Amino acid sequence: MGKPLDPNARASETRSMLLNVGPQHPAMHGIVRIITELDGETVINAEVEIGYLHRAFEKMCEQGPYNNAIPYTDRLNYVSPLINNIGYCLAVERLFDIQTTERCQYIRVIMSEISRITDHLTCIGASAMELGAFTVFLYMIKAREFLYELIENVTGARLTISYARIGGLKSDLPEGFEPKLLAAIVETRKILKEVEGLLNTNRIFIDRVKDVGVISKEDALAYGITGPFLRSTGVDYDVRKVHPYLVYDRLDFDVPVGEHGDNLDRYYVRMEEMFQSMLIIEQCLKQMPKGSVMVDTAGKVIPAAMMVDEAKIGHTRGLKDVKVEADPTLEGTGKTFRSVYATEKNVALPAKEDTYGNIEGLMNHFKLVMHGHGVRPPKGEAYFPVEGANGELGFYVISDNSDRPYRVRVRPPCFPIVAALPKLIIGEGVADIVPTFGSVNMIGGELDH
Amino acid sequence: MLFDFIIKAILAAFFLGGVLNLAGLLTWVERKQSAVMQDRIGANRARIEFKSWFLAPINWVLAPLNALGLFHSLADAAKMFLKEDFMPKGADKFLHTAAPVISVVFALLAFSAIPFGNVLYLKNHAINLQIADINAGILFVFAMMSLGVYGVILAGFASNSNYAYLGGMRAASQMLSYEITMGISIMGIVLHYGTMNLQDIVRHQSTHWGFMVQPLAFLLFMTAALAETKRVPFDLPEGESEVIGYFVEYSGMKFGMFFLTDLVETVLVACLVTTFFFGGWQVPFLAPDGFHMPWGAFYLVPSKLIAVLGILSFMFKVAFFNWLFMAIRWTLPRFRYDQLMHLGWKILFPLSLLNTLITSIIVVLRK
Predict the structure, then answer these.
(1) Using the beta-carbon criterion (under 8 Å), do A131 and B334 form an inter-chain contact?
(2) Whether A132 and B233 lie within 8 Å, measured CB to CB
(3) For B229-254, what is the mean pLDDT?
(4) Residue A41 near residue A52 (C-beta atoms within 8 A)
(5) How far is B275 from chain A (nearest CA, A)?
(6) Which DSSP symbol is given to A339?
(7) In this complex, do A135 and B40 lie within 8 Å of one another by their Cβ atoms?
(8) Which of these, B42, B177, B179, B320, has the minimum number of CB atoms within 10 Å of its CB?
């Protein structure tokens, strides 16, 4: 204002404006920052800064035994933690070259697909909310709540689930889980139909997401993008189909593929994937074998104290798979634990009934959890990709035959997408940053690994 | 002279008090209605309860209000007043403070030209139920609404924040472009009724309400007016997930005033739509002497009751439009800046011109 006028200056001068979007921006969740240069409302330059949620996940994994890394994996993608759990365990199991029981594999698939649905629900809901459609968000969260209740039912927690174990799962599905799951699927389908009614024919929504945040097939591949983001461009790469793991090769499902690689296609792909996931769950429930429980002593449920007494006089073999009425604080009470655990004693923890009930179980448990013993995979390295909700989630584990991983590397699916984010938003308006960012479904936990 | 002054003061107190209370209530309606739409319970935590046993009867009365969460408006107000009044470094102190005041004052002033009832006869006085009987009432209302834009722009510019600046810019361009559509769409009504006096416009609608003779103008006006209220789907100046809004640097009651302005403007728009297109205080089949039913029946109604019925009818219509705007606000996503401009300038504006043209031709041909 106070500057003297420069006679040589042009009548008006145009300068671009630097705008920091995040980390305190409401849409950036405090975990990412996009530095944008604006010409009016058009983004002419953008840079993404990550690392606000860095917890040194990979380094932490090297500090403890193999099983201790499982809780860390919960915090990678905190919207679908079960997939991370399972992915890590599968990688370690590949090091050992062991197979889990069939029932365990089916349960892992079911839990992965439930997680995929919760992840997509959150992603679409949040994107819609950021476009101003708050009602859609709450509908989606309502659906997610049904599924979270199931997850809580199975694992005991909503988010920090730590359900998978190397060689198996923490426990079998609880009683009466199947009807609850089927009811939740019915509800979720209903809500998804409602949301489709709200969005699919909504002119404002379609206009906001169509041809926004476009990425070409070639670019997406060059950046190493996977998952729904890549499929929206027309590449039908899905780890579940291309490198089937668990029992995905026995299941019949489609991989939805988009065409344009814009936000609208990503929305469609995610919506359709949820329906496919529900089909997968239904098939799994049909195919899943009942847990094979080897009962020697007439299949009675006996109190834990009696089991100890029996074990003392040497009747351990027959007692191994008997249901025990243990103290309610002991996990695995009355669960058919063996059906979801591999039989390798050097990998899989024994059932809690055994740990507390007989000396062999106790010894086995001791050998696996104590410092310097533990799970010891043979020397070697293994990479195991699973289809996470955002794309290919890979764990690369190197073993030096000690009880701790020499190195754990995670390939978070949203990392390459965030790398490509500037490409997506340059040239678009300020208003398009947030929906595009929402369709990336950036999860800070796995991004800053 | 003094008597007229007192009458006007009472009318103003009655009407503005009603508007402010309705705006306060709308904060509750917004929560509760959105909750109903989204399968939630909604506001139900703010409660007033007395501990003493002898005040128990009052508690019984308060209990249903507590359960409804009606005291959330009060809690909101208390919160707003008790919050720290924060001003960012480098902000223009005077303009930063003036902006919310400008917003809310002009929004409230616009109400003075709106008739909320017909003439009320008390003894030998004829009281026109309108605060200011302005000849060119429409122009007054539009002038006030336009002046309200200044508050928003100043808030954006005085905050020394890039986000607020973007919000202010958006608000300026959005409100300016939609004001034009709004003004021209209402030309149809003006041409048809041949007056700019709002009371006269309402009187002309005794048999056919405005939306029957000017359906296109009604849709155009409602859309443009919704854009004026800066609420979803036109909440670009606010755009909480994009630019957060022109009031991002406001806290406490200054923010509260912007918030209030939004709701007051919602009420204002509801009042305008009612006045122009839904017969204002007109009650169906009610003439100045009583109900003339289309099947020939006639019920005599005393004139004072007619005035009261008129006010009630006006209130009901305003409440209905408030409800409708809330439902729209919680259903639709937000426009993008270019789409908004596209809609405003390339669709609504030509249509409003067309509407004016057709109306003029018809008016001329009729003569």
Answers:
(1) yes
(2) yes
(3) 80
(4) no
(5) 29
(6) G
(7) no
(8) B320
**Do residues A34 and A28 touch, judged by C-beta distance below 8 A?**
yes
Q: Which residues contact B52 (CB under 8 A, 6 or more apart)?
A: none
How many residues belong to chain B?
Answer: 367
Query: Domain for residue B46, yes or no?
Result: no
Query: Residue A375 — φ and ψ, nearest 5°?
Result: -75, 125
Give the residue from B76, B67, B32 showing the smallest Cα distance to B49.
B67
Q: Do the domain assignments include residue B99?
A: yes
Q: Is residue A336 over pLDDT 60?
A: no
* Beta-ladder partners of B298: B292
ipTM of this model? 0.81
From the list A142, A207, A433, the residue facing B339 with the nearest CB is A207
> How much is the average pLDDT of B235-247?
76
Q: Please report where in the chains the tokens 């993404």 appear, as a residue.
A: A48
User: Helix (H, G, I), strand (E, B), or coil: what is residue A44?
Assistant: strand
For residue B229, give its domain range. Answer: 91-366
List the structure tokens of B299.
């019920």
- pLDDT tops 70 at residue A435: yes
User: Looking at CA atoms only, how far is residue A47 from chain B in angstroms?
Assistant: 17
**Residue in the structure block whose two tokens are 């043979």:** A378
Residue B108 in any domain: the answer is yes
**DSSP assignment letter at B366:** H
Whether the CB of B338 is below 8 Å from some CB of chain A: the reply is: yes
pTM for the predicted model, two decimal places:
0.84
Q: In whole angstroms, give the CA distance from residue A53 to residue A106.
A: 33
Which domains does chain A possess? 58-289+380-406 (1.10.645.10), 302-369 (no CATH)
Q: How far apart are CA A395 and CA A410, in angstroms?
A: 5
What is the C-alpha to C-alpha distance for residues A111 and A288, in angstroms, rounded to an integer? 13
